[in-house]
Amino acid sequence: MNLTTEQLAKYLDHTNLQPNATQRDIEQTCMEAIKYNTASVCVNAHWIHLVQKLLAGSSVKPIAVVGFPLGATTTSAKVFEAKEAITAGAQEIDMVINIGELVGGNSQFVESDIKAVAEEVHRENKLLKVIIETSFLNREQIVTACQLAVAAGADYVKTSTGFSSSGAKVEDVALMRQTVGKDLGVKASGGIHSRKEALAMIEAGASRLGVSATVKILTEE
């Protein structure tokens, strides 16, 4: 697959979710995103108010994570977190599912957890991405997670937080795309460090990539 640097940049959610990121670090992330015209900047919700001000006037969107990185907070907490982030300027929300409930077979809870956040996000006409954390899941569980996200009204399914044992894998992205079809977005995230890896994810079916190595990927020869 051949994409220009400008085309590839629009697939990228330029991400800084490090717990020790300072205001200066977040400002640098935003400057890089504007310079390369990425799809978005993805940060922890604390920084969204700053990010939306820094990105004002650009086409780069502010994104906040919810229930991050474990997904084990209560549904009401996730809904509140999403609402606060949107009020502060988030245009998209990336939420983590309750991984333990999925692995334990409690599909009804997982769907209701996603649905509650989706309803809050869509009330404000924003997008919801659902992080399923593929490193904990087998193929059957990945399929189930994707099906539950579709049923709950999510806009995207996303591979990983980047905080688990492994990140996005090409075969998982392909399986997720096969499961959700053409209508839902698929975001590959975690462990993508080169242009070659980025293009492989897109070729497998990813419509968005979550990366912190954005500058390296876009400046590779």
UniProtKB/TrEMBL annotation:
It catalyses: 2-deoxy-D-ribose 5-phosphate = D-glyceraldehyde 3-phosphate + acetaldehyde. SUPFAM superfamilies: Aldolase. Pathway: Carbohydrate degradation; 2-deoxy-D-ribose 1-phosphate degradation; D-glyceraldehyde 3-phosphate and acetaldehyde from 2-deoxy-alpha-D-ribose 1-phosphate: step 2/2. The active site is at 94 (proton donor/acceptor), 158 (schiff-base intermediate with acetaldehyde), 187 (proton donor/acceptor). GO terms for molecular function: deoxyribose-phosphate aldolase activity. Its main location: cytoplasm. One of its GO terms (biological process) is deoxyribonucleotide catabolic process. The keyword Lyase applies. InterPro entries: Aldolase_TIM (IPR013785), DeoC (IPR011343), DeoC/FbaB/LacD_aldolase (IPR002915), DeoC_typeI (IPR028581). GO terms for cellular component: cytoplasm. Catalyzes a reversible aldol reaction between acetaldehyde and D-glyceraldehyde 3-phosphate to generate 2-deoxy-D-ribose 5-phosphate. This is Deoxyribose-phosphate aldolase. The gene is deoC_1.
